[in-house]
Amino acid sequence: MPYKKIITVIALVMGLTATSHAQSLESKFYSSYYKSVEDGMIEGGRNQAIYSYILANASTPGVDLVALLPPKDRVEILKTLPEQATSEEKNSAILEFVLGKMSVNNRRTSALAVIWGNKTKTLKNVVTLGK
Question: Is this prediction's pTM over 0.85?
């Protein structure tokens, strides 16, 4: 009977040790820097989807294109849009703004993907001992 308790305690300790070891191993390979790369890629994909939706609905009557923008972009475009502009002029400015943002977002997301890919190559070299 005491052997069962000892075995249970040993198994529990080994399980906890393996979990903490896996977490420490993960932190060695993936620093918080790579978490920010991952978050940036996710945000870039989300923004690209929003920009595509705005372009697809640009000619739909009654759609407020500014309201569809992400909050940071909304603040930026509202600073540049003149109040006396017609709705057609505003929509034209918003479309130009969105196309520019898509271009910047695409380059940023591509750069983050290269960073992530380089990390993957490095990990592969570590695991295969450079072979």
Answer: no
